[in-house]
Design a protein that fits this description.
heterodimer, A: 375 residues, alpha/beta, Rossmann fold, 5-stranded parallel β-sheet, B: 467 residues, mainly alpha, globular
């Protein structure tokens, strides 16, 4: 057609209609999970060894996003169905599992894989890092729920007191931005969480449109693009040269999560979420691990173990977790002192490579005893 | 230019496009260009510099206009209006400091009226002196060229730019110890300087047409081409301001196509490739030759898409205002030899250097009875070295320029050899082989361009070839 004769208003009308239609389709049919599964990882690019997370994307070649489908699609776990000779172990948990301030080769799963453990039937144990650097048992449950699709043989679930308070369950952005999934878990396992908790973000009709989802769509795209540098360099974390170490001298406060000594009521802690995880795993054994934590010997260390925990609260938590585990017949191990105090980095739960190795060695002994995994 | 700038410029073009019968397109472009110089200028840590640098761009344009006026030129009402508007708008921009929503449109709050009045007086004085000098000997024109080149050298040389930044920091009562080359982010000056030199040289050779102040300033700081070119010629640009123009379907579609193409190429392709294109940081993080080639190839396409995308956008915006800017790229990576590549890569810059450096230099060398091969060698090496240095006066841009100069010379030798020996490759093979070889040569050359430090480039070449 001669460009003189092209009716501009009709052209603009068609473009507008197309744009509106695209928005309506995305709003009506939630296509984001399906779009999240479209990935360059595990075919063009190698899968990531840990879930996407990045405070400094341009240096870490990694970024934080909330689309679990996209996160899992980029992970090596989803590369292929489990091999016959593989004994699959997924490790869920917080930033200490993910490996905050640690290179990939220094994480807990890397240390466990390096041990070359085998199951009693000869299958090679392969440990997958499904930690995510936010602390919430509900977030862990959500990841466990997702990981069950990938046929694990064993689930390791390192936890710490910070992940337990009921009022912190929805503080993880990953939980907040996956409201429908969290609500399903609340209903399915009858969790003591409010279905209408204001933290849980529900996108309205416009929020689900192409315009409303532009940030999420861009994140999916950026995850693919950062994959090239991940593949080229193996870098997925930026470790600053100067890291402020965890506090040794502590505040003279005994308050914890709004509670004061002596009582740490069990109902303030989300044991029901742990129970839900074990139920969701069904036949797959779950080993709950109280992960190492920093014990200070500085000022006010008679009151507190660390900036995270007053002594009374942490001690009470250990007792509660132990008794709950016994009562529920959970596989549980308390490794709170498995790493030396000098091996903690910027927080009372983040470990150096050496500290991680100490934790892994303690865990390997447990895995041998409980699950007959041996080198 | 950000997306916001582009959409607002496009909106202005669409809004004004059908009404040029009721008001002048020339005045609209003049005023819009004056304001855009301030609006597009990025922030600087040196106080007042984001105001003074755009004012300096306008001052230079007015001064060079006055210097290049024909001897028999008698200014008219239009020039007086243009001069008044130029000075007035500088004062208006400065006054925006008192109107919060307006001042927030600029990179930093403009300085007080005393600075703006000082700038206007200085511009008036320099334009007046230039006007008087312009009627004198041609030495003033050459002197102006030298001064512009000197400013370009200071602006493009990191240590000199840092020194100038330190000096300006002292003047503004800031710590000169914190000065860096980034203080001197003079938006579009590389292009402004070359347009100004073009007019000065053409005035000296008697080729410069008579141009009013309004048209001259609009040509120098035409907002679609301010940030990334192309470098138009005034005799091509100015008549377009005076042809009757109404934004019709044909122009609208042509502009729309260029804008959509440019937006996609720049903001999707180039910005997407930027995630893994070679840079000084990732050059040390990559350890396999295969990935080094991927990163380098990504850089090659990223720089092309970035630049070509901006050119599409500039041409698209220009079309909305009835100005057809020159093309800058013509599928350069599909060219079968390096000479053809340089006839299709940043064409307006290459043409500028050909007109104002290469041709005069080679003519001069020939008059000195220099052997032909040496004329070509000197001409191509020095031209490409200068094109390299135009991007920044650092060793890596020099190396990049010399790389291409040597490549062009080698291609020239090969052409002569092939002509004498009457040897030629199978034509069906020659084309794809030539394209591949040229692309490989150009891509390897980008190592110099992407990596500022010699050690980085040395390591990267070693890695690329598995050494």
């Amino acid at each position: 057609m001669d460009s003189h004769n092209i009716p501009i208003p009709r052209l603009l009308l068609k473009a507008t209609l197309l744009f509106v239609t695209l928005n309506l389709i995305l709003s009506t049919f939630n296509l984001l999970p399906s779009l999240g599964r479209l990935t360059l990882y595990n075919w063009l690019l190698p899968g990531r060894q840990r879930l996407p997370y990045g405070d400094d994307p341009q240096r870490a070649y990694n970024l934080s996003l909330y689309n679990l489908e996209a996160m899992f699609a980029s992970h090596e776990l989803t590369q292929a169905p489990k091999a016959e000779d593989e004994y699959r172990v997924v490790v869920i948990g917080d930033s200490s599992v993910w490996g905050f301030l640690l290179e990939n080769e220094d994480t807990l799963t890397a240390a466990l894989n390096a041990a070359g453990l085998r199951a009693a039937d000869g299958r090679q144990a392969v440990f997958y890092n499904l930690g995510h650097p936010t602390i919430s048992l509900t977030k862990d449950l959500m990841i466990l729920d997702f990981a069950m699709d990938y046929d694990p043989d064993l689930i390791l679930w390192p936890v710490t007191l910070e992940a337990f308070p009921i009022n912190k369950q929805t503080s993880s952005p990953l939980v907040q931005n996956n409201a429908p999934r969290v609500r399903r878990l609340i209903e399915e396992f009858d969790l003591a969480l409010d279905l209408r908790h204001p933290d849980l973000v529900d996108a309205d009709f416009w929020g689900r449109s192409l315009v409303g989802q532009r940030r999420n769509l861009a994140d999916i795209l950026r995850l693919q693009l950062y994959g090239f540098m991940w593949a080229a360099t193996g870098i997925d974390v930026h470790i600053p040269e100067d890291v402020e170490l965890r506090a040794v001298d502590l505040e003279p406060s005994e308050e914890y999560a709004g509670l004061l000594p002596p009582a740490l009521p069990a109902e303030a802690l989300a044991f029901d979420v742990l129970a839900a995880g074990v139920r969701r795993a069904a036949e797959v054994p779950v080993l709950i691990i109280n992960e190492p934590t920093f014990v200070s010997e500085g000022a006010n260390s008679d009151l507190r173990y660390s900036s995270f925990y007053p002594r009374w609260a942490y001690d009470a938590y250990r007792v509660l977790l132990q008794s709950e585990s016994e009562e529920q017949a959970w596989d549980y191990v308390d490794l709170w002192q498995a790493a030396d105090s000098q091996e903690f980095t910027n927080t009372p739960i983040h470990l150096t490579p050496q500290g991680t190795l100490q934790f892994a060695n303690a865990l390997i002994a447990i895995l041998h005893d409980l699950f007959n995994l041996q080198p | 230019m950000t997306l916001t700038h582009i959409f607002i410029f496009a909106g202005l073009g669409l809004a004004g496009g059908r009404f040029y019968k009721t008001f002048s397109r020339g005045w609209l472009l003049f005023v819009a260009s004056l304001l855009a110089v301030f609006w597009l200028q990025p922030a600087s840590l040196v106080r007042t510099l984001p105001f003074l640098l755009p004012a300096a761009s306008l001052g230079l344009a007015a001064t060079i206009w006055a210097l290049t006026l024909p001897e028999d030129y008698r200014g008219g009402r239009e020039d007086r209006w243009a001069a008044g508007l130029l000075g007035g708008l500088i004062l208006v921009v400065s006054a925006a400091r008192y109107v919060e929503p307006v001042s927030s449109l600029l990179a930093v709050r403009p300085p007080g009226p005393e600075v703006a009045v000082g700038a206007v007086l200085l511009i008036s004085l320099s334009a007046f002196i230039a006007y008087r000098l312009g009627r004198g000997p041609g030495v003033a024109l050459n002197g102006a060229v030298l001064l512009i080149v000197l400013a370009l050298v200071i602006f493009k040389s990191p240590p000199l730019a840092a020194g100038a930044g330190g000096f300006l920091r002292t003047l503004t009562g800031q710590d000169p110890g914190l000065a860096s080359a980034f203080d001197f982010g003079w938006l579009g000056f590389s292009y402004i300087a070359f347009r100004l030199i073009h007019t000065l040289r053409d005035r000296a050779s008697g080729r410069l047409p008579q141009v009013s102040l309004r048209d001259f300033v609009t040509y120098i700081v035409f907002f679609p081409a301010l940030t990334a070119g192309p470098i138009d010629r005034v005799e091509r640009f100015q008549p377009q301001l005076h042809t009757e123009f109404i934004l019709g379907n044909e122009q609208l579609l042509a502009a729309g196509r260029r804008l959509v193409t440019g937006l996609f190429v720049k903001f999707v392709l180039a910005d997407g490739l930027a995630f893994f294109a070679l840079n000084a940081t990732n050059a040390w993080q990559v350890h396999s030759p295969a990935w080094a080639w991927v990163l380098l190839t990504a850089f090659a396409f990223r720089i092309f898409f970035d630049f070509a995308g901006y050119t599409h956008i500039a041409i698209g915006l220009g079309l909305l205002f009835g100005i057809l800017l020159p093309e800058n790229f013509d599928r350069p990576y599909l060219k079968p030899n390096l000479t053809a590549f340089w006839n299709s890569w940043h064409m307006s810059l290459a043409l500028w250097f050909r007109a104002y450096y290469f041709n005069p230099l080679t003519r001069w060398l020939r008059t000195r009875q220099v052997q032909v091969w040496l004329v070509i060698l000197i001409g191509q090496l020095s031209t490409m070295a200068l094109i390299g240095l135009w991007h920044g006066i650092t060793w890596n841009f020099l190396a990049w320029g010399l790389w291409h100069g040597a490549g062009l010379f080698a291609h020239n030798l090969w052409m002569q050899f092939a002509k004498v020996r009457k040897c030629s490759l199978n034509t069906r093979l020659a084309q794809p082989l030539g394209v591949a070889a040229t692309f490989a040569f150009v891509t390897l050359g980008w190592v110099w361009f992407a990596l500022p430090a010699p050690e980085d480039a040395r390591r990267m070449f070693g890695l690329l070839f598995g050494m």
